[in-house]
Amino acid sequence: MPQEESAAPTLSEDIKMLVTSMIHKGEESFARVSFLRGSDWAEGIVPGGRIEKSEGFNEEEIEKLEAYLAGEEAMILKQAKGVNPLRNLFELP
Q1: Residue 12 phi/psi, 5° resolution?
Q2: For the whole prediction, is pTM greater than 0.70?
Q3: What DSSP character marks residue 32?
């Protein structure tokens, strides 16, 4: 029996993901997502699930990151809506 693929691949343990708060430009609202792995980085947006800039990730990895963004879009947008940039700015370690 063939295995079903999940909607979105999981991120490798060595890749960190950062999500901004929601950004509003005119009638559009989106969040920026950064993926970091050592000195490698990729930046994308949701909704849309596309990587706009990257360095160090190969084409196959970029496709996987975009699939992750598309598959986890709802979770990422929920996370972005919960980010309070002012609180984070003044948060002490």
Answers
A1: -65, 150
A2: yes
A3: E
